[in-house]
Amino acid sequence: MHITKSEDGKQLIIGGLGETELEMLHGVREAADPTACPEAERRLFPEPIADADERDFDAIADWKEFVVPDLRSQFDDALDQLDRDVAHAQQVRKLPMKRFEIELQAEHAELWYSALNQARLVLQEKYKLPSDNTGLSLEDLFAKGQWRAYFQSRFYAEIQCWLLEAGLTDDL
Q: How distant, in Å, are the alpha carbons of 4, 45, 52, 53 from that of 75?
């Protein structure tokens, strides 16, 4: 798999995708859904004041009423764009193994980054994934039923790194 920028810099091409990688990209919205996982909800939408007391009640209420819906809307917009781009994946090779390519506007890179980040954070909370690779073993991941979520999370993180290199660096 690779990400390249078009000569004019207006498109990013994610190429060399196998069926499994394409399937994981189709699964970003599901992976990013914090429903039924309070830890993921708190991670995505943390309260603005740690250890709040009664005096902070209004600020927290305002945060929940005005800021959180906007954050949700931004996440949904990012997921919608990623879904649209992935839906237009083109098969570029059939044999010996199918390969796919996704072309997206370079301006969508930030939305992709956001959607993938949301998915990674939710997967980490939902499946209690380790935050680093210290002492990590495949045996443990399989035994705890975490292996698929872990590899999905790492795949999304890798794409985020590539997006930074290929698409977002000009914007920073």
A: 25, 11, 26, 29
How far is Cα 22 from Cα 41, in angstroms, rounded to an integer? 26
Range of the domain at 51: 2-168
Q: Are 12 and 5 in contact (CB under 8 A)?
A: yes
List, for residues 133-144, the tens digit of each pLDDT value.
666 777 887 887
| Domain count across the chain | 1
The model's pTM is 0.86
* Helix residue ranges, H only, 9-146: 19-26, 28-31, 38-44, 57-62, 68-87, 109-126, 138-143
Q: For residue 13, what are the contacts with CB-CB under 8 A and spacing of at least 6? A: 3, 4, 5, 6, 101, 102, 103
